[in-house]
Amino acid sequence: xxxxxxxxxxxxxxxxxxxxxxxxxxxxxxxxxxxxxxxxxxxxxxxxxxxxxxxxxxxxxxxxxxxxxxxxxxxxxxxxxxxxxxxxxxxxxxxxxxxxxxxxxxxxxxxxxxxxxxxxxxxxxxxxxxxxxxxxxxxxxxxxxxxxxxxxxxxxxxxxxxxxxxxxxxxxxxxxxxxxxxxxxxxxxxxxxxxxxxxxxxxxxxxxxxxxxxxxxxxxxxxxxxxxxxxxxxxxxxxxxxxxxxxxxxxxxxxxxxxxxxxxxxxxxxxxxxxxxxxxxxxxxxxxxxxxxxxxxxxxxxxxxxxxxxxxxxxxxxxxxxxxxxxxxxxxxxxxxxxxxxxxxxxxxxxxxxxxxxxxxxxxxxxxxxxxxxxxxxxxxxxxxxxxxxxxxxxxxxxxxxxxxxxxxxxxxxxxxxxxxxxxxxxxxxxxxxxxxxxxxxxxxxxxxxxxxxxxxxxx
Length: 460
Description:
Pfam families: AA_permease_2
Shape: globular
Order of helices and strands: HHHHHHHHHHHHHHHHH
Helix content: over 70%
Protein name: APC family permease
Structural class: mainly alpha
Subcellular location: Cell membrane
Membrane topology: Multi-pass membrane protein
Number of strands: 0
Transmembrane segments: 12-36, 42-61, 81-100, 120-140, 152-174, 186-209, 221-247, 267-300, 321-340, 346-364, 385-403, 415-434
Largest sheet: none
């Protein structure tokens, strides 16, 4: 009996909020405030440079997602370009490491914010409950996910826009600082160093791509949703950041673990603090919802091609969701929450995940170049403009950000060591599963999938 297929039910807005939902998260709000504290108004320049870099990367993901509209995303793209081994590495390195580190950190921030609103509430219990709630949403079906994501992400964006407008127009009731922030306190060299932090504000927009088999018109919607999402995030973040500068000093913004809450209190007093604290919870809810929608579909895509155990490709006959993969991702998140999420090493773990994420971005750029040359006549509903310039620049930018992942040399060495350990574990799994269990070649590219489901997905 054949397995049911995923359901094409997401339109432009569902795709858009999937990407934005992961990008605008609790840790990105913290990074945004810290970056404006370090760079002052000129962080907008660093942020714009990061926007340009991420747009180049988005071009590659858009081309790949419409050439190979598979739920496995980076795994589906890399297998025909570089082989099964690199495909497994791309998914596990870029996204399973993320699930085990960054997402628990997001949820802990959400739990701490909830505790601020409800004294005595356990942050860990709240985080686990939030995860299980959105697991249920994602198990029921992609339509339910899309509706929930529109509400959660839309509410969060509206709140941030509201604070930006109130702060910039001076309508929140707070008292602005007597003196404006210096235009460029870090100097132009400092602005250059802030581009990596700026890029973190946009990382994750590609989470639209694993939904390609459930998007009604992926060839048109995916690139539009990715680019629109990046521009919206930049504009909203910059408005909020400039508003924060009017009410909070640079040093406070740079050194606070919750600079966005300081800004909210400065703009609108206690009411503002409560509202943005609630929005922080929304940010984490949006993030975990996007994670539970996208990452299971990557596992589903790998399993469907024999690069993970077959159970990860099981689709629920009624709800048509990859239920085993959803539950597996839930188990990783919850396991991390109750073991390492409160550890003092969580920041280093997050930065290790960022290195691995950037490594998967490098793979995506290489995939575009290889597939263009190997399959020049293949149908590409979206073609990256100015090929191969965006890919070359994207690879260079990712390498640069990995090299400068942290300003402290000792911390940087620790992060690189952690990334090396993750790489060794993932490559070890890939070798054992592919070479010893499946008896498959590690680097030999697979044929470009031209099945009926792919052709239909690319054309509709």
